[in-house]
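User: Fold this, then the next.

Assistant: Folding the first:
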Amino acid sequence: MQPRDLSDHVAYEAGRGIEEVARELDRDPSEFIKLASNENPHGPSPAAAVAIRETASSVSSYPKAAHADLTTAVAGRWNVTDDQVWLANGGDGAIDYLHRTTLDPDDAVLVPTPGFAYYGMSSRFHHGDVREYELSKADDFTQEADAVLEAYDGERVIWVTSPHNPTGSTMPLAEIERLADETDEETLIAVDEAYGEFADGESAIALLDGWDEFEARDDVAVLRTFSKAYGLAGVRLGYAVVPDEWADAYARVNTPFAASELACRAGLAAIDDEEHVVRTVETTRESRAYMRDDIDAHVWESQGNFVLVDVGDASAVAAEMQERGVIVRDCSSFGLPGCVRITCGTEDETERAVETLNDVLDDLDVEPESAGEPENPDAEVADP
């Protein structure tokens, strides 16, 4: 017996860990810093760490009460009903739930390129097709409805990543609203806000629930996670906020007890730990600004907890930085072979990453690609 044909499925490439790299290079793990996976440099919320320790003795029980309590806490955070909050095993679990709810066999999703590989992977797992719209490097990866609508051909789900990984760009709410207005009634606009805490401006939940000048919509869903700002990537906890009309669907598409007892108790503690989130966001903004000011290559504006850097030869630069103890993300797997992505670290980590990258660029004499031609080719290009 053989598995079904998986030839169209592409394996997800995660950022490399310190232990893995140290083992490969036969070095001490303490020599390395990892800025490749957009993890929280301050670790988990301290309150969540306490909750995990205190919950350890009760993991023999299913997380029914904790699941309900966390759902209520998240709903209160966003001023939506409990039925609109779908807890999941990480953000990728929420992606699966949205696809289970919307996709019939041979339906299609429209995803950004470059972008998060799991949108397409999940669609194929659910026997859906995958089509792409481009975020153009020449346009600094600007996100506007027009680029999506030009590629749109009645797909069942359109994925918008805001802030976008790996570029850090965002799509304004007015553009998301226009996208929803100008697509079919049965097309869901799924907005992935995994990095939303680090961005300026309101969440797209404003569109879904009719905040401010927006009318409430039934064709928008928003994904969020506890992995980034809350520092809980290892316990796998995410959620989707869905239209009120979808209240009955969750029980039909979710796995039993979608989030673990440890994850739910950690999330309950973390959601009230505002001090940790504020500290994390402040560190991110300082790190982003430092990297944009001090890296000797083009760094795109970012609203995430990372920056994308044009280094010319990502594989060579990332490999040499790794040799020197700084692990960053080679973005070749995103279709950006000239770029690396660097997670925002602590002050010391950020300074070390910048110094290492500048030294590597100088030593390798790599020629970064242009981020786009100026309107006036004779004009002096400003130092990025």
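Now the next one, as you asked:
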Amino acid sequence: MRVQVNGTSLYVDVEGAALEPDGYTMREKPTLLLLHGGPGHDHTIFKPAYRQLADLAQLVYVDQRGNGRSQGSDPATWNLDQWGDDVRALCDTLGIVKPIVLGWSWGGAVAMSYASRHPGHPAALILQSTVARWDLDRVVEGFRTEAGEEAATAAKAFLTEGTPETFAAFGRLCAPAYSPDPGFPAEPDIQAMARMIPNPGLTMSFMSTARFDLTARLASVGCPALVVAGSRDPITPLGAATEIVHGLPGARLEVFERSGHFIPDTEGERFFALLRSFITGVTAQATLAAGADQVSQAAGETVAPPRLNQ
């Protein structure tokens, strides 16, 4: 479906019901809103792997402004503040209350922008392989460590020049280093990339000019947060995840020692078990809080004395 949000049309897909029959009542599931990476990619990277979470939460996928099936907006609006505000506006339009927001890679930066600009709105954040501060030298060093000097040179050229030529070299020399698995990209990854609707102009423009720093804004985020990172990720290195946890109150870090940027591919069983546990915990806490609020409200009600007949 297409949803009008902040002057543009966003493509949205939904998997799973929000209400499930549970005996004599209906059980409401939380909403898990998934923000893809890139920019210049789309939501299909989450399919089909993340659908295994649909029994716990209603999954809402979105192609963010300028991405995938949502292309066509003004490039002047392609920035982290606007992308973050779009998340809030999309929830308001669809009637989504207290979403759990998962952001992967660049989508994690969008999630942090949204949560810091609209504190109190999300129920929780899942920040997967992402950064709060763009550090070119750190990224270049990450590719040097994982793939050697030629890859480091290609990464620096693309991330400063952003031309079709440097983009092509980055894909050839750097993309294989996103995963330490020598079989990467595997056939499922190749299929996923083929299904994606890319916007290379957005990718080249943003990645070559990205100079954002959200670290000072993280302190305003009050919801629970799970930060997951691969210890061999060159593009969003482990140091970036540690930086997020230091700035985000109450955040929890889980490190995947055998993984790079594509944790679900290399350590999927542990990864999805972790997500299930976190979502279940957040849902249970929300249920307890709602019950406590009801008890508090009931205790605070004043019972009017009976009226006497005159």
